[in-house]
């Protein structure tokens, strides 16, 4: 049984805690250092503790991720050809900014609310109410992820965007890309459109997404993740689909 004295000794003289730095614990002269164990020989000598091995060899996943991020930064900078008026495709910047507005939250929210006020059929009301729910869910989700990840926008981005909120200083994921994927999937599922129009909807989503990198607003990974998130979010919206049966109060608000 350990004596009261020995436990006091471990804490250092006078009852004060004793601090052990990693250097004194792991230095070559330290009693339990790997080097000492190797010198001492014996079966346990060659086996390094797992934590030491991990420090010496950065993991493969870590290297792969940092390489991917480096490629992302490099390629996104090269593709940011409309990032400023003086950039390689600077003359296309005004057109890119029109495309940017076409995927912005404000026109989509206002347009959906306007449609709701004008709709006379219960089917249109149901679809538009769910579109409004989808757009709001998207805004909240993107804001939460941006706030958690806090990835800065590319250094070549000029922050001259139309109506932003505080988290929009961050870039991961691209809110325009999530909205483009979500809205286009929604439209393709709930609007009866001729094939050329369906193709146009898909093209619009792709152009909005590509324009984020060309304008220098985002890195490619922000946009790719945004597209995946928006696509997945549509499935959530469909799963929680609002109808007069499960949300009668909401539908009563818009019926006349
Ligand atoms: C203020 C409202 C209603 C929406 C903000 C829309 C917006 C500015 C999103 C940012 O998009 P990116 O992340 O693609 O730059």
UniProtKB/TrEMBL annotation:
Keywords assigned by UniProt, alphabetized: Endoplasmic reticulum, Hydrolase, Lipid metabolism, Membrane, Nucleus, Transmembrane, Transmembrane helix
Localization per Swiss-Prot or TrEMBL: Endoplasmic reticulum membrane; Nucleus inner membrane
GO CC annotation terms, alphabetical: endoplasmic reticulum membrane; nuclear inner membrane
Disordered: region residues: 1-44
All residue ranges annotated as the Phosphatidic acid phosphatase type 2/haloperoxidase domain in the record: 127-238
UniProt entry tagged with the keyword Endoplasmic reticulum: yes
CDD domains in UniProt: PAP2_containing_2_like
Positions of transmembrane segments: 127-149, 191-211, 231-254
GO molecular function, one term: sphingosine-1-phosphate phosphatase activity
Family the UniProt entry places it in: Belongs to the PA-phosphatase related phosphoesterase family.
Record-given protein name: Polyisoprenoid diphosphate/phosphate phosphohydrolase PLPP6
Native source organism of the sequence: Falco tinnunculus (Common kestrel)
């Amino acid at each position: 049984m350990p004596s009261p004295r020995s436990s006091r000794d471990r804490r250092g003289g006078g009852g004060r805690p004793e601090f052990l730095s990693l250097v004194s614990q792991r230095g070559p002269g330290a009693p339990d250092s790997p080097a000492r164990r190797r010198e001492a020989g014996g079966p346990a000598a060659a086996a390094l503790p797992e934590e030491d091995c991990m420090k010496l060899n950065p993991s493969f996943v870590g290297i792969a991720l940092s390489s991917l991020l480096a490629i992302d930064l490099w390629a996104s900078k090269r593709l940011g050809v409309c990032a400023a008026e003086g950039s390689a495709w600077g003359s296309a910047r005004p057109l890119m900014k029109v495309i940017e507005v076409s995927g912005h939250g404000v026109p989509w929210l206002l347009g959906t609310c306007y449609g709701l006020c004008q709709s006379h059929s219960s089917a249109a009301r149901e679809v538009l109410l769910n579109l409004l729910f989808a757009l709001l869910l998207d805004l909240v989700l993107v804001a939460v992820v941006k706030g958690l990840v806090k990835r800065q926008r590319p250094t070549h981005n000029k922050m001259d965007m139309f109506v932003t909120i505080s988290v929009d200083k961050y870039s991961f994921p691209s809110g325009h890309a999530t909205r483009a994927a979500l809205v286009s999937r929604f439209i393709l599922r709930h609007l009866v459109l001729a094939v050329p129009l369906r193709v146009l909807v898909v093209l619009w989503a792709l152009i909005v997404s590509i324009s984020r990198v060309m304008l220098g607003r985002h890195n490619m990974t922000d946009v790719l993740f945004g597209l995946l998130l928006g696509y997945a979010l549509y499935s959530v919206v469909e799963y929680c689909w609002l109808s007069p049966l499960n949300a009668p109060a909401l539908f009563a608000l818009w019926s006349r």
